[in-house]
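Ops channel
N.P.: pipeline sanity check, posting one input/output pair.
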């Protein structure tokens, strides 16, 4: 038995629709699912609520909660919620039997399709309010990404969507700009892997929903048990066990990730597929995307649909639920295998017992089958829309010049990459080792020895008078060199103990006088030559490469230093967009370098 509750667009209870019948719901793992019910056009609730009216009246956009009480359950429990999206009505001559209105819609996970990820700072109107081109996530779980986006968009929407459970642990990356949150959910589920479901208006995310109960729970086709019948279909046409995923970039510059499964190759032969993930620009995320696709396509697709009813032996919800693994046993078909409950349908009919169908799948969910069709070759196209780039064009910039350099003064590039370059695909550095060159040859041929010297000097005076005398001076050290007699001269002194008529006696103070007029001159001769023209010296060698101050020589394959010309070394991974970058090429000695740097990327034009 299913009870139908109508809630308004803000999820407030409006009315329990007692006249509703044939309610049904179909939850599907990681997907929207669907729900429906019927109500007569003459029902009092139909008239009071204006169910047939068009918005702004009527119930389109309202939320319906379906509460189920199984034949072995004692109370109604809220099992599924959907958003009213479609109302169907037809009437013929037999009015009483045909005047039933069908109300249907998708599960509340579909509400995410109305929300997009805005760039940081965007006010919803003015492009100038955007403070950053991207909302970027790196190294966080898929559930954390979804939680953050639900919070960022919460102020713009009713009803509020909560996220009470978030235990996913697979780290992922996303670069978002006006991306649909429903498609974001799909992409994160695929590449995680992770499972996420909406319970009412609560978004819950885990690594794997459900547990392995196959050892204890058996759904079997036998007397007094729950399995009433089954349909089995197996299809190997879509198997892919060697998947190549291509990310951002063009041609040989595209990011690539390869995922393979050896057991599948051995059992089903090698079957290659191509995954177009051109919007993924993080290598680790691209690898996750390839691995996620491989997990869904490496084995034969097996789908089993069963007719089921609760029994004392096995009951839905009590013993197993969406995502759980159980054992499926059908002795007449020789089947006994572990399967996963990926969806189910419960329909309240006019019969005494409701109609229940289980979707069992040992390989992948119906949701993923639909999601990935068209993604893996040989089909064309891709559902992956995350990270799509805004309007723009290819961007190229080139730096080239030559300069002489030494170990102290290296060859120096200053490189600025504009902040609106959205993707730097590569940076190619080339340099050529050449001889040091100058345009002025300056030489010094020699100097002359000393021929004279002028100076002042003092003497200790031991005479009270002023005596005239001369000195002998030598051009060399000590008494070496040629000697010459200085000019006759006198020295004065300053002694406070003596007066002009005093006579110096032993023991009287002695003062040092100041040199009077003694002097001698000298000169030096320097022969220098400067010639205008081209002058070359040694060739640059042992060149080390520093990028933004960090030595990258070894990483580039140069060992202790490059000794030959280098062509297109990839340095883009060490350059920063929107900032000044430096590249220093330092030789071990004197030399000259011709440097060439080419940058290629994608730049936003609007």
């Amino acid at each position: 038995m299913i009870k139908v509750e109508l809630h308004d667009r803000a999820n407030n209870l409006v009315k329990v629709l007692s006249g509703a019948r044939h309610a049904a719901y179909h939850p599907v793992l990681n997907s929207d699912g669907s729900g429906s019910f019927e109500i007569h056009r003459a029902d009092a609730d139909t008239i009071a609520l204006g169910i047939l009216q068009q918005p702004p009246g009527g119930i389109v956009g309202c939320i319906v909660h379906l509460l189920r009480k199984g034949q072995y359950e004692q109370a109604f429990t809220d099992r599924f919620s959907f958003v009213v999206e479609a109302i169907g009505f037809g009437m013929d001559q037999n009015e009483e039997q045909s005047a039933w209105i069908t109300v249907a819609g998708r599960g509340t996970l579909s509400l995410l399709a109305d929300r997009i990820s805005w760039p940081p700072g965007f006010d919803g109107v003015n492009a100038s309010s955007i403070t950053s081109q991207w909302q970027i996530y790196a190294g966080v779980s898929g559930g954390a990404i979804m939680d953050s986006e639900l919070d960022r968009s919460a102020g713009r929407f009713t009803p509020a969507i909560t996220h009470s459970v978030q235990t996913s642990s697979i780290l992922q990356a996303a670069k978002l700009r006006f991306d649909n949150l429903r498609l974001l959910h799909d992409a994160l589920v695929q590449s995680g892997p992770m499972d996420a479901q909406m319970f009412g208006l609560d978004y819950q995310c885990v690594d794997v929903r459900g547990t392995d109960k196959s050892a204890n729970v058996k759904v079997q086709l036998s007397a007094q048990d729950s399995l009433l019948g089954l349909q089995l279909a197996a299809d190997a046409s879509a198997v892919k066990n060697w998947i190549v995923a291509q990310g951002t970039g063009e041609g040989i510059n595209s990011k690539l990730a390869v995922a393979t499964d050896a057991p599948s190759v051995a059992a089903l032969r090698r079957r290659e597929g191509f995954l177009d993930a051109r919007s993924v620009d993080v290598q680790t995320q691209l690898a996750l995307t390839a691995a996620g696709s491989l997990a869904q396509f490496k084995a034969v697709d097996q789908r089993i649909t069963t007719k089921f009813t609760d029994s004392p032996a096995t009951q839905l919800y009590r013993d197993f639920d969406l995502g759980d693994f159980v054992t499926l046993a059908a002795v007449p078909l020789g089947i006994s295998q572990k399967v996963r409950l990926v969806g189910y349908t419960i329909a309240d009919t006019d019969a005494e017992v409701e109609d229940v169908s289980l979707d069992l799948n040992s390989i992948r969910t119906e949701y993923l089958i639909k999601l990935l069709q068209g993604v893996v070759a040989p089909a064309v196209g891709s559902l992956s829309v995350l990270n799509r780039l805004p309007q723009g064009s290819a961007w190229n910039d080139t730096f080239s010049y030559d300069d002489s350099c030494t170990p102290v003064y290296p060859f120096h590039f200053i490189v600025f990459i504009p902040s609106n370059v959205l993707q730097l695909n590569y940076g190619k550095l080339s340099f050529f080792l050449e001889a040091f060159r100058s345009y002025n040859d300056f030489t010094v041929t020699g100097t002359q020895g000393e021929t004279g010297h002028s100076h002042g000097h003092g003497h200790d005076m031991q005479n009270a008078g002023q005596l005239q005398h001369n000195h002998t001076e030598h051009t060399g050290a000590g008494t070496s060199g040629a000697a010459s007699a200085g000019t006759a001269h006198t020295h004065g002194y300053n002694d406070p103990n003596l007066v002009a008529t005093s006579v110096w006696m032993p023991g009287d103070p002695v003062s040092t006088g100041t040199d009077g007029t003694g002097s001698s001159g000298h000169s030096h001769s320097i022969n220098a030559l400067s010639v205008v023209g081209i002058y070359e010296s040694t060739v640059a060698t042992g060149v080390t490469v520093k990028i933004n101050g960090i030595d990258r020589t070894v990483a580039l394959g140069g060992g202790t230093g490059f000794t030959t010309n280098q062509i297109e070394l990839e340095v883009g991974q060490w350059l920063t967009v929107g900032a000044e970058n430096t590249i220093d090429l330092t030789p071990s000695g004197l030399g000259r370098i011709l440097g060439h740097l080419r940058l290629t990327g994608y730049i936003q034009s609007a």
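N.P.: looks fine end to end. The domain at 392-442+533-604 is CATH 2.60.120 (Jelly Rolls).
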